[in-house]
Amino acid sequence: MSLLKQNTALFGENIPWFEGLREKACTIFARIGLPTAKTEAWKYSYFKEDALNKPQIDSTPHQCDGHCHDESNLPFLAVDIKYCNGKLTHIAHDLPCGVIIRPLYEAIEDGEIKPYLNKSFDMEEFPFAALNTAFLDEGLFIVITAGTVLNMPIYLHYHQHHDVNRLSNIRNIVVVEKGAKATLIEHFDGENDAQYFDNIVNEIYVGTGAILQHYKQQNEAQKAHHVALNSVLIKADGQYNAFIVHGECTLARTESYVRLTQENAAAEINGVYRLEQNGISDITTNIRHLAPHTNSDQLVKGVLDGKAKGVFQGQIHIAPDAQQTTGYQLHRALVLSDEAEVDCKPELEIFADDVKCSHGAASGDLDAEQLFYMQARGIPLQEARQILIEAYLNEVFEKAKDSAVAEWMKDSYL
């Protein structure tokens, strides 16, 4: 594949185990290639190869004065981390007690990251994760040490400047040790005329009795492509709560691959998407219940207008030994245009007999009677539509565990 023929100098070429990992990834990606319309997991939002035509992979340090991050204006205190043009440019200096945040290359150099890097997924199943590994050069190693309760979120702001065909491969390793609690926020944006491809992989390890709240807000340049994999392993009594917000861009796909490996592990994934032009939003989940008494819950809602397309693929797998497990999944969409499209593929794979599971999907338009009622009382049509859309999506925002973060996301989104 021509994508792998670039002569790009990357960090770590003198570290045998790490370079061997990248070479393995190159071999796998060259064999499986980019997904197409015939790739089952991508058939609703298949990737057009010309989006990676002559991608620019920048291996030189990027200097950023920080002005491009001022617009985030967080209404709460946070541990501030900045990525600019796919490069890590800032880590807050005064980290809270019990929090370790290091650039990925440091943890690779001393080998501390070896027990975690590429240990949570199989590259054969995730082509873009294989591509990410082949060109892996940037990212973070975040550890919340045992028993630490972090009282402010860790905020990762990814910003892209105007450019053509930049490919950013970023890997974040997040380890929440036994009994620890933390909140992670990812915020992606880009300049209006920028054209780039974000290829993000987060490997997340939630320890015994630990809790991670993971928020993601993606609202990028119209010509941008965004593909992200959140690969999560959860131990006994651990909790992973994800909240995904998708906005405009050519293609935004967030895939959550979650394994509940021990008893009483739990995962909750909620999401909203709103597209008004011609972009594609794809929220894909694969939750694997591998132990008894595990629980999962999913609610995703979308609003589509113009020629936009919304995709939800949700799989719940319950292994034979995962008795007394619960797994719930629901997707709903408002389709406001005859040219908009929604594709939904819920799946249940149940190999145990003592479980409670359900899935559902529905789509429709705004209620004409409600619109008429509001207009009859002097509310203009567009304002009435907006009120109904916000009320429709509020059901999901109300499920967010942190109300301050949810309000910030909602204010900048709706």
3D structure, described in words:
By secondary structure, this protein is an alpha/beta fold. The protein has one domain. Helices cover 16% and strands 42% of the residues. The protein has a 10-stranded mixed beta sheet, with helices on one face. A 9-stranded mixed beta sheet has the order 3-4-6-8-10-12-14-16-18. Helix 1 packs antiparallel against helix 3 and helix 4 packs across helix 5. The longest helix has 17 residues. The two termini are 41 Å apart. The relative contact order is 0.10. The model has no long low-confidence stretch (mean pLDDT 91).
Number of strands: 19
Shape: globular
Hey, roughly how much beta strand do the residues contain? 35-45%
* Lateral strand order in the biggest sheet: 2-1-5-7-9-11-13-15-17-19
| Uncertain parts | none
- Domain module tally: 1
Sheet having the most strands: 10 strands, mixed
Range of helix content: 10-25%
Topology:
Blueprint: H1 16-32, E1 79-84, E2 87-91, E3 99-103, H2 104-109, H3 127-134, E4 138-144, E5 154-160, E6 164-176, E7 181-190, E8 195-206, E9 211-218, E10 225-234, E11 239-246, E12 251-260, E13 266-275, E14 280-289, E15 295-304, E16 309-318, E17 325-335, E18 341-350, E19 355-364, H4 368-376, H5 381-397, H6 403-413
Parallel strand pairs: 1-5, 4-6, 5-7, 6-8, 7-9, 8-10, 9-11, 10-12, 11-13, 12-14, 13-15, 14-16, 15-17, 16-18, 17-19
Antiparallel strand pairs: 1-2, 3-4
Helix pairs in contact: 1-3, 4-5
